[in-house]
Structures are given as C-alpha cells and as structure tokens.
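Hi support team,

I'm opening this ticket because the web form for multi-chain structure prediction keeps timing out on my end. I have pasted the exact lines I submitted so you can reproduce it. The total is 721 residues across two entries, so I didn't expect it to be a heavy job. Is there a limit I'm missing, or should I split the entries? Thanks in advance, R.K.
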Amino acid sequence: MNSNTLVIEAGRTDREYWKDLWRYRELFYFLAWRDVLVRYKQAVLGVAWSVIRPLLTMLVFTVIFGRWAKLPSYGVPYPLLVLAAMLPWQLFINAIQEGSNSLVNNTSMITKVYFPRLIAPASSVAVAVVDFLISVVLMVFFMAWYRVVPGVRLLTIPFFAVLAVMASLGATSWLSALTVKYRDVRFVVPFMVQFGMYASPVAFSSRIVPERWRLLYSFNPMVGIIEGFRWAILGQGAVINGTIILFSIGGVTALLASGIWYFRRTERTFADII
Amino acid sequence: MSDYVIQAEGLSKKYMIGHQIGMRYGTLRDAIVESLRRVGQGALRVVGPSTASLDPRREEVWALKDVSFEVKQGERLGVIGRNGAGKSTLLKILSRITDPTRGRVALRGRVASLLEVGTGFHPELTGRENIFLNGAVLGMSKAEIKRKFDEIVAFSEVERFLDTPLKRYSSGMQVRLAFAVAAHLEPEILVVDEVLAVGDYAFQKKSLGKMREVAQGGRTVIFVSHDMGAINTFCEKGMLLHNGSIVTAGNASEVVARYLEGADRLYTPIRSVFRDYGEFRLIAATVLQNEVPTAAVNSRLPFTIEIQYEIVKVVPDARLSVFFRNQKGEAVFSTCDFDDATEEALNRQTGRFISRVTVPPKFLKTGAIFGTVVFDVRFTRVVFAEPDLLRLEVFDPECPPYSETHDRPGIVAPILSWEITRVEGSRDEREAGWEGRLTHSMQRVQE
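Hello R.K., no limit was hit. The queue was backed up. Here is the completed structure from your submission:
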C-alpha cells in the first residue's frame, strides 16, 4: 500500500508513468495470458495455428521461389532459408496485426479503468513472442530433418531477437495510437504487411538484390534482423555485415523511440476519442 | 498536516464536438484547394500541435467548470446531479482515465474506481479465469486475488459454475460475479459510479452492505448515484453538480433536498397551483420539517403538511384530505381534517385558510411517496383533487438503505417499543402452567 501523494494536473507529464508500468506489470501478464488463452479456447486449430502458419508459408515460398523461380539459396536448403527469416518476420507482423487493434478492442477498459496504456500494445507483442517460441521449435525440427547443425553463432540469436521485439514494439505503438484516432489505419496494415513481405528478404536471400540498390534496401531495419537470424542459425546463405547491422540498430531504435513518443503524446486523449 | 486525502482546485474539462457541415464547391479550383488544404491539415494533425480549436466546424463543450473541493480521510461524499451535470467526467479525472483541461487535484492514497462492473470480462474464459482477469484490471495483485478468491466466490453465489465459460452465465450471474470482485477491492480511496443499480433487490442489498463495510474501514468513498435514498443513508457529505459546476455542497441530506427541489419540479415542497374550481381554490401545498420546507423527509422526525386554500363558496360537509401512495402505487395512508372533527373543519365558511397536519415520526417506510390533495363531500362528489401534488423522498438516517426494518412486509414501518418481562415461579410450577394451557388449547382444537 503506498500512500504518497499523486497530483493530477492539466498539461503535466506523468513522471510516475514508468514506475506505473512496473507496478502494473501483472496486468501486462494477465492481458497476454488472456489473449493466448482465448485463442486456444476458441478452436481446435488455435493451438495448431502457431505451427501451421509458418509451415504453410514456408512450403509456398519454397515451391514458388525455390523450385519454380529457381532463386538461389547459396548452400542452404531453401526451406531453412525461408524458415529462419520467418521467425523474426512472423513475430513482427503478428505483433502489428493484433497490436494495432489492441486499444480499440479494449475500449471498455480504456474508458473505465486506469492503467498505463502502453501495456495494451506491449501485451500483443508478448503474445507474438509466444508464437515465436513455438516457431523456434518448428525450426529445430526442420534443422534436424535437414541435418544442419548450428555453429557457435547461435549464441547471438538473443541479440537479434531483442532487435525484432524492439521493432515490433515500436511499430505497434505507432499503429495502435494511430488506429484510435484514425480508424482506417487498420486497412493500411495488411497493405504494409504485403509490401513489407517483398521489401524484406523473407522469401528470398538478400543476395539477389542488385548492388546499387543494396544500400537503400538496407535502410529497412528488418533486413538486418532477418539476415542476422539466418547468419546466426544457418551460418551460410546470409548477407550480413557491420553496416547492415548498424542500420538495423539505428532504424529499430528510431522506430521504438518515435513510437513511444507518439503514443505518450496522444495517450491522454485516448479515453476521450476512442 | 491536513488530513485531506483529496484536494481539487479549479478542475475543468473541455470536450470538442464536431459538426458536419456540407462543403460547397463552387469551382474546380476551389475543390482542389479545399482537398489540398485538408491533406495539409491532416498531415499536420498527425504530428503537429492541435489546431482543432481553430476549426470553426468544432464546438467546445465544458463538461466541468472550475470545480474545487476537499475530502477528508474516511469521509463519504455523494456526488449528485442531473444527467450531463459532469459527475462521470469528474470521476474519470479522479480515476486518471482522462486528463483535466485546467486545474489540479492531489490524491493521497491508492485510488480504485468502479465505473462499470465486469470491465475486462471475456465471454470465452471461465468464471475462475475472469475473476483473476477482472481483479487484475481493477488493480489487484495476483496474490491479493488468490487470498480473497474464496470470499469472492462465496459473495457471488456462482460456485457451481466457476469452471464454465462466462458466455454460459445469465446476465444476473455475470453481474454478481463482476460485483463480487469489485466489492473486494481495498483501496484507500474508492470511487463508485452508479454501478450498484444492477442485479436483483437482494443482491443490491448485499452490495450496499458490503460497500458500507468497506467505507467503515476508514476508507474514503466518492459515490455517484441517482438513488437519493442510498445517498442519504450512505454518505455524510454531498455535492450537487449542474452543467459542470458545483451548485451546493455540504451535508448529504441538505444537498439531496436541494437537488430534489430543483429537479424539474418532480419533487417540490411548495406547489403554487392556483386551481380555481369555483368553490375551492388551492393556493399552495408545502411539506415542512423543523419548520423548513423540504422534499426529503427524515422518517425519524415528524413532518408537517401545510395547505393554503380559499373557500369561495361554502360547500357543506366538505372535508380536506391527503392520500399517500408509494412508488408501487399502493395506498400507504390517508388523513382527513374531519378525523379530529374540530369546529373549524365541520363548519367551513368562505375565506382563506391554512390547514396543517403533522405526520408522526418512526412510521413511514423509506422511499418515494406521493400525496394527493382532495377536497370532497364524502360519498357525494369531489370538489377538488390534485393527484400526486406532493412528492417526497423519505429517508432514515439511522439505517442503511435496504435495511431489515424497511424490508419487512408492510407499506409502513413503524418503529415500536417492545416490553419484555420475566415470569416468576419455580420451574415445575411454570411447566405445569404451560402444560395446563397447552392441554386446554388442545382440547379446544379437538372439540
């Protein structure tokens, strides 16, 4: 029970906000737990969905880009190339698809209860992380199947995973706040996902991007993250260097910082306009 | 060091509401300019400062205007007012759901708000899971919920269905579960918004009882309700809001009376009616308690009904009466000035009169009652009748609402004294006495 004085004042930024985020951490777990539970209760497919989605995508990409288009995979089985990219990519898009609606879907909570609103998009990211972990299991299975043994680079996976989570959180913060104000943002998201799918080396290796476009291409923070995953897990077939990683770190940091900034700025009006 | 737990100064809240006005495009150039302007505004709106107030198509509405008040520790403040007065907005600001446009409020202690029951409930989850979810949403920690889990389940009376999904619950059960969780909040400051008007009668009773328990633990409660009876018996202080400003604040019963007087003439102690029926002209009807006109009547004290009228033409054998009915339409009692059969009543001449009758204390049940004033000749004709002319809210400051006294069968609730005496004599004698009486009555039954 803490009894210190709280002052609510017009136009005053809440210094307590970050402490509040910690204080409300249990709510964060509960919201994530709720979303995971609900998904698993609603259908038999619920549990399987976390496996089927990456699996099917991997199959489709392998057939279309690997077999028919005959894109090179540079010494790595195509399915593994795709699957390694799917891990961070699915994390990102699951987070933004669910997360962009996280505030409007919880309208009653926003208008009736206080909690640091950042918890809502953050819990969507947490749910996406759960899916990510399931996909990791799938990855392990396929690596065993193809008898590919990862090297010591695997230890860098947490670094790239953290980057992926940061990118997801940044994008989700932006999108969830924007969706509150402009409801048609939710129609933009699928388009962004489609576009991003081809602007990022998910279905193919970055090596097929011509040299003169390489720099511009690297501005996409997901490029560094995806190739990073490939490099860490597979060892071969990845196109990665210090510059790309730096771009990723810079891009992700900018995305996260700006996302949280915008979210905090508009947060005080959520209850009024949602 | 003051013992105020809530100090509000100059709280104001502005809302912008938009009006859609059709745009007329005179020329293509205008149309293009207009759309470019809107695109520019749109981009600016996303990241720039808010220029919404400059747009002529949007209007400012002040939901709260310069509200200042202080609440001491352990006080129970009732906030009343018509719909749109700003009560919910005030609660939202105190609950940190929305920010004030101006002003500040200092809160000492943890605040828990009950603005709705069942916030966060998900139909696919079971009752058990929803208890944890709802508790977390309301700000309880997992450990706290676990600790109170059994109490919550017992209060909600849904133990059998704890592991069925919530979508299978009846609405009554959902409400009970929601309230059960909310009732076990233990904050220092509790903010409650009309949520007690849910569930059936028995449950409302339980809920109010629980809230009273919470309040008696030294907690400060801010209570918004339209149930004047609940406000009167539960809160010590009151605050009346109208159009965003405080109209009056002070003792709960005074504030309630003020509200009832002003509320659309629905409740009024004084009715000037000037009805001219040729023979009888009603001038005014007032209800007084402690010689003060009021519409909220303390059932523990006597109150007086005063009727001013004029006899234009003598009507022999005419009497003045007041019939009281309750909210359900049942007749509660009636009284007539012939009952006492005074000289003035039996031989009413022309002229102006004031008739007063005093209703005894500790007699009426709490709730709303409506008085019809009648001037008639018994079994012959009605000269004058004004239905529901007097409207009163009866409250009992010494009993919580829905207390047992006012729950008993009967349209009145007289508070009577009982006398208890011990009967002397040895045990055997007494038993013989009883037996004798018992045999005697049994014989009579058999006959």
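A quick check on our side: Residues 20-27, 264-269 of chain B have pLDDT under 50 and may be disordered. Let us know if the file doesn't open in your viewer.
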